[in-house]
């Protein structure tokens, strides 16, 4: 059975950007059109950190150890997966799609899998572990056609 049937949604995401696409033709000649774009302003961890890592006393005379600071950049990526899962849930609840293909790097796919509601995960028909967020849509169509054939 063809995966990219008419009406199938394709989520192309990474930790900071997501394209919600819908196939308006069929699997032989996919025509993906943008339904929605989500971007997260997520500067590097260095730019988000307020100060250098803290220090704590180690009990011995004059001994101190460094304390790891929060990785704000990584935390923001995890929150972005939460946001995407919520958007997908709301759209699935409205009946916007019956089938969903996820395209993301492995770490993002894992985050999405963990965050998705059952109502959404039941609609996932394929996963492609690639980073395609910066590709033009015609290249995404060609890659998916080849990958899902």
Can you give the mean pLDDT? Answer: 84
| String of helices and strands | EEEHEEHEHHEH
The CATH architecture can be given as 2-Layer Sandwich
* SS strand fraction: 15-25%
CATH homology group: eRF1 domain 2
Largest sheet: 5 strands, mixed
Question: What is the total number of structural domains?
Answer: 1
Q: Walk across the major sheet and give the strand order.
A: 3-2-1-6-7
Number of helices: 5
Oligomer: single chain
Helix content: 25-40%
Distance between the termini: 10 Å
Gyration radius over CA: 20 Å
Number of strands: 7
Provide keyphrases for this structure.
alpha/beta, 35% helix, 7 strands, Nucleotidyltransferase, domain 5, 5 helices, 23% strand, two-stranded antiparallel sheet, single chain, five-stranded mixed sheet, elongated, 149 residues
Please, could you describe this protein's structure?
- This protein is of the alpha/beta class and 149 residues long.
- It has a single domain (9-42, 71-147), classed as Nucleotidyltransferase, domain 5.
- Helices cover 35% and strands 23% of the residues.
- The chain contains five helices and seven strands.
- The strands form two sheets. The chain has a five-stranded mixed sheet, with helices on one face. Strands 4-5 form a two-stranded antiparallel sheet.
- A hairpin with a 6-residue loop joins β4 (55-57) and β5 (64-66).
- It is elongated, with a radius of gyration of 20 Å.
- The mean pLDDT is 84.
């Amino acid at each position: 059975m063809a995966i990219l049937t008419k009406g199938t949604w394709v989520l192309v995401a990474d930790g900071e950007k997501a394209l919600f696409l819908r196939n308006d033709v069929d699997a032989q000649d996919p025509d993906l059109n943008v339904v929605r774009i989500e971007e997260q302003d997520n500067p590097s961890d260095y730019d988000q950190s307020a100060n250098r890592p803290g220090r704590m006393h180690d009990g011995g005379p004059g001994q101190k150890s460094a304390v790891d600071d929060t990785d704000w950049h990584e935390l923001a990526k995890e929150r972005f997966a939460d946001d995407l899962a919520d958007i997908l849930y709301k759209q699935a609840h409205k009946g916007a799609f019956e089938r969903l293909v996820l395209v993301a790097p492995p770490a993002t796919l894992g985050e999405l899998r963990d965050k998705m509601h059952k109502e959404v995960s039941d609609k996932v028909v394929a996963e492609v572990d690639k980073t395609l967020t910066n590709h033009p849509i015609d290249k995404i169509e060609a890659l998916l056609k080849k990958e899902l054939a």
